[in-house]
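Contributing: when you submit paired examples, paste them exactly as shown. First protein:
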Amino acid sequence: MTITQLKYVMSLWHFQYFGKATENCSISQPTLSIAVKNLESELGIDLFERSKTILWVTALGAKILQQAQRYVAETSAIAGLALSGRNNLNRRLHLCAVFTISPYPSPHCISSLQNTIDDLRNTNHQCNLQGITKI
């Protein structure tokens, strides 16, 4: 059982229609069908009852899908925590350039840093050559 399988099955549960679920997951209908069948086979139960026009969740399938929803939400929270912890600097970053050249490289440099580091606060200070050597 994979998180991807659970996401596919939850999409099918939400839309109760293969076409909309495959569109939501950006996959083909055979891929969704195989994922559902593999998960049902692994669990040894049917999550869904199917007819030619209607799809509905079994009673046990609803309980399993509710648990899967909590599980997927928790894994997303873990991924979010990991993402928020990336690229954080542990110390203050000082960028100094002599005022005669700073207008040229500074905008590009600051913009690149802001795209890379989420929590970068931009405070500009002009300093002379003596100020640079002290830092």
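Second protein:
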Amino acid sequence: MNKEKKGKAVVSALRLLKYRPRSREELRKALDSRGFSEEEINSTICYLEDLGYINDVKFMESWCYFRREVSPRGRWLVKRELLSKGISSESLEKYFDRFYPPEVEEAYLRALIAQQTAKANLQDNKDPGENRKRLTLKLYRKGFDRWLVHQLSEEAKEQIT
């Protein structure tokens, strides 16, 4: 492999990493779709790992932070996203609870349900049961634990009545 092709692969990878962190497998697929050879891809990934630009554990940590704080999603959905991005099951087992503890999901759900319930109470033109149903379905779609959503919705319902 000549240095020019390797350089192009590194530049392409760095361009991708400039926008957001990526997992090792995500970067591999992106470079493959850009027509780089397997040897160029492996060489580029090893080089970038040595420099610290690619680290699946740090990627998992940043993805969990994003999904907790910026664009909240439930633990179930975040796990599925990480698996689809090439994070190994072993890494998920080992690190996921540290980066996205179950208590954080519950605290976020409590706050969201309280916020949405208060908002719905201000709008007296809608049926409270319909509002609860819409909120519950929204939380299911965002990947939150169904049992926890149901339990916290019931708690909120009891507090109102």
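If you have annotations for the second protein, write them as plain sentences, like these:
The radius of gyration is 21 Å.
The mean pLDDT is 88.
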